[in-house]
Amino acid sequence: MELLHLQLALIDIVLEGDPLTEYMELKKLIDDKIKILPTILPFINDKNAPPEVPVIQSFDPECGYGINMTRNRVDFMSNKVDKYRIDEFSKYALKIIEKFKNTGIGRIGLISQYSIESENPPRWICEKFLRNEYGVLEEIVVKFNKKEVFDGIQINNLTQFQEALISENGIEKKKVHVLLDINSAQNYTKRTSTSKIANIVKSKIQAVAEMSVGDLT
């Protein structure tokens, strides 16, 4: 099982400055790895726009890192993932989390995507999850959630299996695509401290990097 993409989502955050200034501070926290100019979207100066509307997006294919922002969410992502990159991603993720120590964070997401080689992805999914009497199926999506409690915080481990076209050396191949979305449940009464959010990331990041099919089923 190959890890394709890793993403940290900080949800229901409070930006203390204007979005572009906040973006430049975030970019500095990851050692200015992103060299391209960000895409500034039309609503960046409209304070009456819904907070979930994207205002800044960036992804640098050279370094494999990107940062997307709304007024209440930051996503930090990488699509060049190996052992060295996992350690680096974790270091940068913890620095980004610490930036919000004064205001806390509403929710966190740690999203990873994987591919599994298979000559027949629908059959692989059927044999893994479904009873034989269903026969041969197409366009299968299997999704489930394993809940847990970590340091008093309810954690969802949402997992999804489906067939997808995945690019490999410029050639698209049919494979089993796996999405793992580890996220904290919404707490409407209080925000979560950055120390607790950091502990979740430190606890989960290595497991995400070394995940196998058996760990997900």
Protein described:
The longest helix is centred in the middle third of the chain and has 16 residues, at 83-98. The protein has 217 residues and is α+β, with helices and mostly antiparallel strands. β4 and β5 form a beta hairpin. Strands 2-3-4-5-1-6-9-8-7 form a nine-stranded antiparallel β-sheet. The relative contact order is 0.19. The chain has helices spanning 19-29, 83-98, 121-129, 194-209, 213-216; strands at residues 2-11, 39-40, 56-60, 65-69, 73-78, 107-116, 141-150, 153-168, 171-184. It has one domain. The model has no long low-confidence stretch (mean pLDDT 90). The protein contains five helices and nine strands.
Gross geometry: globular
Helix fraction, binned, reads 25-40%
**Structural class designation:** alpha+beta
Number of strands: 9
Task: Give average pLDDT, whole number.
Answer: 90
What is the number of domains? 1
Query: Uncertain spans, ≥5 residues at pLDDT below 50?
Result: none
**Beta-strand content estimate:** 35-45%
Order of helices and strands: EHEEEEHEHEEEHH
Topology diagram in text:
Blueprint: E1 2-11, H1 19-29, E2 39-40, E3 56-60, E4 65-69, E5 73-78, H2 83-98, E6 107-116, H3 121-129, E7 141-150, E8 153-168, E9 171-184, H4 194-209, H5 213-216
Helix pairs in contact: 2-4
Keywords:
single chain, 217 residues, 5 helices, nine-stranded antiparallel sheet, alpha+beta, globular
